[in-house]
Structure formats: structure tokens, C-alpha cells
Fold this sequence. Notes:
The structure is a homodimer. The first copy, chain A, is α/β, with parallel strands linked by helices. Helix content of chain A is about 40%, strand content about 20%. Chain A has one domain (about 5-10, about 65-110, about 140-330): UDP-N-acetylmuramoyl-L-alanine:D-glutamate ligase. Chain A has helices at about 25-30, 40-50, 60-70, 85-100, 145-150, 165-180, 190-205, 220-225, 230-240, 280-290, 295-310, 320-330; strands spanning about 5-10, 15-20, 35-40, 55-60, 75-80, 100-105, 115-120, 125-130, 150-160, 185-190, 215, 245, 255, 260-265. In chain A, the strands form 2 sheets. Chain A has a 9-stranded mixed β-sheet with strand order 6-5-1-9-10-11-12-13-14, with helices on both faces. In chain A, strands 3-8-7-2-4 form a 5-stranded mixed β-sheet. In chain A, a hairpin with a 3-residue loop joins strand 13 (about 255) and strand 14 (about 260-265). In chain A, helix 3 crosses helix 10, helix 7 (about 190-205) packs across helix 8 (about 220-225) and helix 10 runs antiparallel to helix 11 (about 295-310). The interface of A and B includes residues 21, 54, 91 and 315 of A.
Amino acid sequence: MTTLRYDVLGIGNAIVDVIARAEDDFLVAQGMHKGTMALIDEARAQAIYAAMGPAVESSGGSAANTIVGVASFGARAAFIGKVKDDELGRTFAHDIRAASVAFDTKPANSGPSTARCYIMVTPDGERTMNTFLGAAQDLKPGDIDESQVANAAVTYLEGYLWDPPQAKEAFVKAAGIAHKAGRRVALTLSDAFCVDRYRAEFLDLIRKGIVDIVFANERELHSLYETADFDSAVKALRGEAKLAVVTRSEKGCVVISKGAVEAVAAEAVEQVADVTGAGDLFAAGFLVGLARGKDHRTAARLGALAAAEVIQHIGARPAVSLKARADESGLIV
Amino acid sequence: MTTLRYDVLGIGNAIVDVIARAEDDFLVAQGMHKGTMALIDEARAQAIYAAMGPAVESSGGSAANTIVGVASFGARAAFIGKVKDDELGRTFAHDIRAASVAFDTKPANSGPSTARCYIMVTPDGERTMNTFLGAAQDLKPGDIDESQVANAAVTYLEGYLWDPPQAKEAFVKAAGIAHKAGRRVALTLSDAFCVDRYRAEFLDLIRKGIVDIVFANERELHSLYETADFDSAVKALRGEAKLAVVTRSEKGCVVISKGAVEAVAAEAVEQVADVTGAGDLFAAGFLVGLARGKDHRTAARLGALAAAEVIQHIGARPAVSLKARADESGLIV
């Protein structure tokens, strides 16, 4: 058990989700690629919103969802990300603080509005995302709180941070502070198209040891090594990463370290309502396990438990206490 | 089958719900009366929001929920209500139009922001509401579109309209237009405390025949006649109302007309997640039945079906097509 101030600090795009159900035909008509995230400008955001069905608004953002999951396990969590001082920005700040996450990033007073992600949930539970980055683009190195990073067992960064122009500098700064303080740095590859945009840079982060732990799903892994063969991609990642976890939806995950490649099963679920947040919440459970000194298998089981909870309802953040769920499953956090 | 432009036109407060789970202790600490609606000012709204847990935002408003339910049955629906031209106002307008409801009320350009209702959902699924009326207070007689009212089989009004100072004039104007055109007027009593505030006026509306159809739940009925005895309250209502429906949660409802008092069972539900919108959606089904010339029992069964759908998930509007649900149940809309 660590005596640091935080178990996990997350840095990512601060986004409010606008979630609607949609038929597959709608995705086709709108030219959307099912299961992926597309970046959109404000005009496209308005056009999508006008075309989509009745929606609910809910705070989101990949790393932010993860950090809320970390807090839901009863672990100590903090988040750094940029909103504007507007209605949605206040909504984001309320929701993350109400989830017991420390969130002190100064909101932008001018410039574009708080980021929104328009999410279409198809009848199969798959989600297709369209992100207007807005104020999230203003995250700068100056927003990184050195003392928070130095006092977090793990600093967790999302690959999506490569999209806003200055955020990657904030990312690299945070990683440097973390390593100087003897802490670990984790990265999620975020999305297969995101990997496509920044493949060389992501590989560089892994090869130079700027990140210690890599999270990827199958599609992201295949994109990273530009191969359709799972085993050879796993082999390549094992040769480069200190520790990596590849999530495979209902097939569970594989934890890849120098010593072993371990497969861990997924949790059984009754019905998949909305897969939004599945990867984010898997990372939450795994990181809590790591920060609390659990073995990789136990950490992966905590991840599977959190992912199973979030896909059984609409929205990307837990609807119940993950600590209570872990207790019920006999997993001690 | 009517050839009018609308089956049902609703007039009510245009509100965005801010919904969070809460324990019973929270209600006690905040001095909230479980299961009821309290009116709050902006300062209290901020205090409640700061104290409550992570929330989701979802368009609401009692009559607005009903009208979205009407549209979900495939019936033709319109709504009149006042938002401000702000972020939440645009959210409200988007959601109701995306549900195929005609909504043309001009938004306010100045004055208080769009109305918000802070809803606490306790573990038993009960909801406790706190409404900041904001821009909804600006609904005026001039906002009533005469042609819409004259072309709707039923105009449906919420008792909550007695709270904003000028809305009752809009209400009475709409009732007059409807009757002059030979249409029917329905009223929901909204809330037991609301009945407490306006008992004499609500009785006057019923006695003078300004409303033809009355919706109430048991608590509202008891409040209306200031009695704890259900049978004597039903008898009193039967002596005064042309047609009334009293909803009794899992005990179903009674349809009260001069000719008969008919009990109709509730639909069985697996688990109650959130009762918000139960009464609103019951009214939707009943009104669709009435507008389409069904008998009272069939109308009540459509109401029960809609209420059962909405209480099985978080939020006060249907998550699936009520027309499809009715088809599955062999109820022809």
C-alpha cells in the first residue's frame, strides 16, 4: 500500500458526452465509421446534433472516465484537463468532483466552448463517437501540477492527447516529472484511427521508455504494428513495452510482460447496452490493482469487473460503487 | 380516427432534468420531502447541485415528457413551453423536436436561464424533485398558438403551470380555444404539494368544466379533497369530473366516469430503476387511446404499458418505441 497522495492521476481531454440511440443506417448516411472516434469541427458538430435523435448529456472523456472509475474503487484519484468556464464546463467539473476526484485545472475564460462528444449507440451496443475538441485544445504544459504528478503512484495519459496541438507537450512534461519522482507512466492508445495518426510517436514513447504501461484493444494493437495477425503483434509489443494489456472484448484480455503473456477472462454480462467506456473502465480496475500492489491477474480481474459494469447501462461512467462490486466478487481493493 | 393536425397538444414548463442517485440520508440532510416536487430559487439550485452526486442531464418537464410519449406511440404531438435561448434551452428544443414533436414556442432572449429540475433517485427508485423555474416563468398567453390548440383532439395541461405567475392565463386561454373548437381539455394535478397550493383553483377548473379529463395519483387525489379515505375521494371526484383517472403505482389505476368506476391493472415490471415520469407516461398512453377513439380500458392499458417502460430505466422519457411495445402487446394504437 502506497503512502502517496494519489493512486492514479489522469490527464486527458475534458469532454461532455451527448449520447443518442441510432440505427446502423444513420451511421452510413452520416459517413461515420462504426466503433471509432472522429474529430469534428463546430459546424459538423451542429449538423450531427441536428440530425441525431433525443439525447442525454453525461460527463465523459476517456481518461476522465478511467479516473472516475479509479475513485469508484475507493482509490485516491486526480484529473487534469481543460474545460471552458461555461455551462458544460461547470457540468464536467461538478460531475468529476462529485465522484471524489481532485480536479483543479483552471478553466479557459475565452476561446471555444467545452468539448463535446456526440455518441451514437447502435442496437448492438456499439458506440460511434464524434468529438468537437473545443476548450480541450487549450491544455498546456503550464496546466500540469508538478506536485500532483510527483505524488501519484501512476500517471495515466490518453493517446487522444496527441490531437490537441499543445497537449502532447503537457504529456511529455508530466511523464518526465513522474519518472524523476520514481513513479510510473501509463498510456492508452485510445482508438485505431488515433494510432494511425500518431503511430511513429506512440512507438517512440514506448521504445524510449517514456511510458511504462500500455493499454490497447485489438484494433489499436493491429494498427500500431500494421498487421492483421494478433500473435505477431503481441510478440512485437512484448519486445518493446515494459508492461502492456491488450483488451479483447468478450474474449477477455492478455497481460504482456517480459516474464509472461497471461490471458484473463472477461466477466460474464447479461446484456450489452452500450460499450462506451469499456476500455476506460478496464484501465481503471487494472491501474487500481497495480497502484495497490496486486499481481497482474488480480489487476486484470478488477479491470474486467469494471468494464462489465459500465457496458450494461447507457453512459461511460459507473452507475454503482465499483468497490462494492469488487467486495461482492471477493476481490480486495 | 381524427383528421385533426394533432392528437395531443401539451402545454407545460420546459425543463431540463439533472438526475443523480442519492441515499435517503441525503434527502433528510437537505430537508427534501421524498417523492414530491419543491420549487427552489437559483441560490438553492446552486447549493443542491454542489451537494449532489455525479449527474446526467436529460430533457424533462411533466407535460413535455407526456407529449414525447404520445409521439413515441406514433401519434401526432405538439408542445408549448418556454426556454431561454441558452445551452440548455437548445438541448430541450433539440430533444423534443428529435422525438417528432412540433415545438415552436419562441425562446426568451433575456431573463433567467432555462428551467432545471434537480432529481434525486433513491435506491427504492423513488424520485425527489427540486425545480428552478427560470425561463419557464415567462410563458404568456401570447405564446399560445390558437391554430395548434384548435387542431388538437386533446389539449393537455399540467397543474405545475399554476406556479409561474402568468402561465395560468395561458392555460385558461388555451382551454377556451379548445372548447370553442369542440376539442377536449385534460389536466394533471401534478403533485400533492402543488394541489395544496392551488386546491380551490383546481376544483374550480373541474367544477366549471374548464377541464374535461383529470389525471391524479392517489396522493394528489387525497390532497384535492383533504381526505385520507380513497373511496370517499373517488366518490367526490366522480360527482364533479366528466372523466378522471387515478393512478395507484403497482396497484394500477381506476378510470372514473359518470357511468362507471373501472379498475385496470398495472403492467408487471422486473425492477423499478427510477419512477420519474411514471405519471407523465401513463397520461401519454391514456391520451393516445382517447384521441384515437379507444375505450377507457384500452386507453388505461396503453397508459400502464408506457409507465412500465419508463420506470425501468433512469430518465423520464421512453428509451424504446412505445408503438413497438404496444404492437408486441397486441394493443393497436
